[in-house]
Amino acid sequence: MKKAITAIIAVAIIALMALGYADAAHHSAHQGEASEVNPQEIIFDHLGDAYGWEVPFNHSKRIPLPVIVRAQDDKWHVFMSSHLEHGEQYDGFQIAKGGDYNNKVVQVLPDGSQYRPIDLSITKNVAGIIIAALLVLLMVFKVRNWYKKNGLKAPRRFTAALELVVDFVYTDTIRPIMGKEAPKYAPYLLTAFFFILTMNLLGLIVIFPGGANLTGNLAVTAVLALLTFLVTNFTGTKHYWKEIFWPEVPKALKLPVPLMQIIELFGIFTKPIALMIRLFANMMGGHMVVIVFMLLIFIFGSMFNTVVGGVMTPISVFLSLFMLLLDVLVSFIQAYVFTILSTMFISMAHVHEHHDEAPAGDAD
Amino acid sequence: MELFKPEFGLAFWMFISFLCLFGILAKWAWPFIIKSMEERADLIDKGVAYAQEAKSNLDNAKAEADKLIAEAHAQQADILREATKMRNELIEKARSDAADEAKKVSEAAQVSLEQSRKEAEKQLRAEVGDLALQIAEKVIRRNIASDDAQKALVDQYLSEVETKN
User: Fold this and answer.
1) A151 has pLDDT over 90
2) Closest alpha carbon within chain A to B40
3) Looking at the predicted structure, is the pLDDT value of residue B1 above 60?
4) Which among A129, A188, A226 has the least Cβ separation from residue B22?
5) Does residue B51 register a pLDDT over 90?
6) Which residues of B touch A103 (CB under 8 A)?
7) Is there a single domain that holds both residue A143 and residue A101?
8) Dist CA A238 CA A8 (whole Å)
9) Is residue B58 part of a domain?
10) What does the pLDDT read at residue B114?
């Protein structure tokens, strides 16, 4: 009985969606609005950064965020992004449309040319990062405070779920790989895991405080990969560097032409780059597919007619929902993959002479 | 493709945010959480080991108790059997003793009976003799005249004897 009611309500909602689309298309057609949809623009608008944070059901109002730029004369300018809305100019700055600096703040020089200042604005993505960081802080301190307050009693509810994840990442992943060194590197790895996971999941929530495509942005993943790169190489043991510059291979491979050295050096950089690209591509791809499924409504609507668009609505909504749910899984998997690979890279840089393994012969 | 050009400002803030987050968590949260989690894992392991030990101890104790009870039962049965035997023996002995005693008593009684009978016989004989002697004496003294007188005399003597007796 309950199931039947749920099904009826779901069908009704989907039908209303289709009607809503048909109604909207009808109205815009009557008012002579340009109903031309540019999917590429919409996709990159959604995936990209912005100087304000859009609010639901409103296309013109945005939550203003501070713009921090250094002008050509080395002076810092700080003002709210609301001053730059709708192409307005403020203090000689405006948001460029088209060209090299599309959607970025530029300084309009007296001769009319555009200068891209050093831009440390708190953009939508930066605000998203800060929100994610605060959330992580909140969640982790929730677990910590539980232990502070309740000793070794098992936590309940949300805290228990968080602790389960910490346990999963630390006890089942970091410790088996790193062994004795686990407690030393666990703070970095756990922070990275929770930060990435929170950013991934926040990106899936379509309205404020979510909706910023954080881990689907190359700058964010590049910083994460860079940190892993720094930790890996700055804590690497002597033996790690020896294996790079003088690996145990036949001499011909390393002497006149330093073939192995080149490959190994290349490997140092490919590892973090792979980390960066993997996280970026997975998250951006997921977001893009969701948006494309949604846009199918409008693409079909403009290609054929309103009825086709209306029929397409439930299908699109269903597909998007499916993709979003899949992205929840991907969010977790990618955060986990980033963490486990970082763990392995770091632990691989901590090799010691393995001559003690040879006589035992029971390793394999 | 704006998406593929990393923005410096974003990377800068990301770096700062991550370092702040890492600094705070690494100093105040993660080591404590990890320590607590490991302590609790140890505690649970110890608890499990303790419970297992306790269970095996309990099992042992139960087996021991069972053994003791079985022993006690066996002892009880032995004692009971012994007691029954003893009782039977006692009864038997008492019975035979009683029988012996009864035999002795009845023998003694017969002996005394015989004796008293003999005595009585002796006495009776003596008395009868005495009587006969007295009667004869009287008969001789009176000089019997007639048969009637004789009969009356005999009667008289007999009743005399009877009253004497």
Assistant:
1) no
2) A152
3) no
4) A188
5) yes
6) 2
7) no
8) 67
9) yes
10) 93
Chain B contacts of A152, Cβ < 8 Å? 36, 39-40, 43
A12 domain residue, yes or no: yes
Identify whether residues A202 and A79 lie together within a single domain. no
Full residue range of the structural domain in which residue A259 is found: 124-348
Pick from A154, A191, A223: CB nearest B21? A191
Under 8 Å CB-to-CB from A307, ≥6 apart: which residues?
A: A22
**Judgement on whether residues A132 and A11 belong to the same structural domain of the protein:** no
Chain A residue with minimum CA distance to B11: A219
Cα of A95 to nearest chain B Cα, Å = 14
Is residue A216 over pLDDT 50? yes
Are A215 and A113 part of one and the same domain? no
A102 and A165: one domain? no
Q: Model confidence over A221-250: pLDDT tens digits?
A: 889 999 989 988 888 777 777 777 777 777
User: Is A197 found in the same domain as A60?
Assistant: no
Number of domains forming the structure of chain B: 1
Domain count, chain A: 3
What is the residue range of B123's domain? 29-164
Stretch among A36-40, A323-327, B12-16 having the lowest mean pLDDT: A36-40
- The verdict on A103 and A131 lying in the same domain is no
- Chain B hits for A224, Cβ within 8 Å: 14, 18
pLDDT of residue A321: 87
Look at A218 and B5 and tell me if their CB atoms are within 8 Å.
yes
Residue B7 counted as domain residue: no
Q: Which residues of A326-349 are buried (b: 16+ CB within 10 A; e: fewer)?
A: ebeebbbebbbbbbbbbbebbbeb
User: Once rounded to an integer, what is the mean pLDDT over residues A27-50?
Assistant: 69
In a domain, A321, yes or no: yes
Over residues B96-117, mean pLDDT:
93
Give residue ranges of B with CB < 8 Å to any A CB. 1-15, 17-18, 20-22, 24-26, 28-34, 36-37, 39-41, 43
| CB-closest option in A143, A144, A219 to B14 | A219
Whether residue A4 is predicted with pLDDT greater than 80 in this model: the reply is yes
Residue A341 lies in a domain: yes
Contacts of B20 in chain A (CB under 8 A): 133
| Residue A43 falls inside a structural domain | no
Residue B115 falls inside a structural domain? yes
Residues of B in contact with A218 (CB under 8 A): 3-6
* Cβ-Cβ contacts under 8 Å, A140 against chain B: 25, 29-30, 33
Peptide bond into A209 cis (omega under 30): yes
Q: Do A254 and A112 fall within a single domain?
A: no
Considering the domain boundaries, does residue B10 fall inside one? no
**Which range in A7-16, A60-69, A204-213, B109-118 is most confidently predicted, on average pLDDT?**
B109-118
